[in-house]
Write a structure and sequence with these properties.
This protein has 10 helices and no strands. By secondary structure, it is mainly alpha-helical.
Length: 196
Amino acid sequence: PVLCTQAEVRLEQGALDEAEALLDRAAALPAAQSDAFTARLRSAWGGLAAARGEHEKAQTRLEAAIRMAEQAGDNETLWRALARQADAHWAAGRRAETLQALAAAVEVTERAAAALPEPLEAVYRAAPARQGVRDALRRVRAGIAPRGRLAEDVDLRTRRDGAWRPAWAQRYPHIIGRAPALLPVFNALDRVSGSD
């Protein structure tokens, strides 16, 4: 499990070759024979394939990870695999599938939280990775990429000029139009995106 965790950290950091080497080492361990651990490995390999732009390979591995995690009753691996699947769908330009995978991931985390004693329930939900999945779902519902930040070069609190910004077309693809009446809407979205 430690090698797998290290691989997942390296994957999040973008060190893909190091992540792959760690996953290969983890797969050779005797613990890799359990369904739950194999599901976790496949999820990480799916994330690795997605990070490399290998969308079909990523989907195949992530689907397998999801099935195995469901069979093993491993909710942690399940919601993480669903979140990775959402990222892979988004990268392939499949918004509806992204929403479906994120909604499923949030549902799994909510079921797991509800099964915990009350004092732990809030702590479980507040963990950054789980909160990130809920935030990603809100962002995609708003037509924004599930992860990432708005452009650093724009001070969103003070810029209120009346000019159309090309970044809006990418940031908010489901809002159609460039009418001057929409400019305050785009400015407001820039100020609040990424928050509730």
